[in-house]
Amino acid sequence: MSKLLINESPIMIIPSLALKIGVNEAVVLQQIHYWLMKSSHVMEGRKWIYNTYKEWQMQLPFWSESTIKRAIKALERQGYLVSGNFNRSKMDQTKWYSIDYERLAELDREKEGTIGQPPAQTELFNLSECDGEQASLTRAIPEITTETTTERNAPPFSEVIQYLNEKTHASYKPRTKKTQDLIRARWNEGFTFADFKRVIDLKTAEWLGDPHWNKYLRPETLFGTKFESYLNQKSRKKKWNEEDFDLDD
After folding, report:
1. Contact (Cβ atoms closer than 8 angstroms) between residue 1 and residue 132
2. What is the enclosing helix (H) or strand (E) of 98?
3. Distance between CA atoms of 39 and 22, rounded to whole angstroms?
4. Distance CA 177, CA 36 (A)
5. Locate the Phage conserved hypothetical protein C-terminal domain: which residues (predicted)?
6. Domains, the chain, ordered by start
7. Residue 184 CB: number of other CB atoms within 10 A?
8. Lowest-pLDDT range of 27-31, 51-55, 122-126, 234-238
9. pLDDT digits (tens, 9 = 90+) for 201-246
10. How far apart are the C-alpha atoms of 196 and 176, rounded to whole Å?
11. Buried/exposed code over 140-155 (b: 16+ C-beta within 10 A; e: otherwise)
């Protein structure tokens, strides 16, 4: 039998959750949920855990630290992950994490059924049944299965371009090869549909009313190599120079 077939603790992905927030984000959120159930650290009425990006990468060795950092920041941005600093020393910048289960429950009400729950034959831990045991945060997740969603493997070309057209009053085609290549490249880097929408929203608010910059509200500019920097910019207008972009007219 192959040594690659379930001889170690696997990782769980709930398809409906991954479809809503992204595969990477769903894996990280499930990992944090597991450790929260083992945590005895309770502050501000909720359980917390702490870990460095390097320690997360030890648990998820198939990803780079930058991929894990991007997934965590996406979860914070979407409001599912709460972070704080409860360290005794002000110099200690180790981040503590908790899950906003109320925010996550909103996904349950967006579709029929319960999102984030496994099939009936799979049982997840219940926070209310935890024994409060403090666990080592660098060992693998136990008793978890892996599933890959068809939806994640197929980038949402039509949805992204439809949203872009609605926001910019344009008529780009989702089947254009160059456009699909750009979206696929960002999708394969772990970005989600919510990330595409955020970039479109930010740049539309900034450029749409500017007669010079509104021409750059196009797939090759928005979804190019500067996608991540656009995603993480603050929501404010800024005066741009052409040298800030790779503009391939």
Report:
1. no
2. strand 96-99
3. 26
4. 44
5. 160-232
6. 15-150 (1.10.10), 155-244 (no CATH)
7. 14
8. 122-126
9. 999 999 999 989 999 999 999 999 999 999 998 765 555 555 555 5
10. 17
11. ebeebeeeebeebeeb
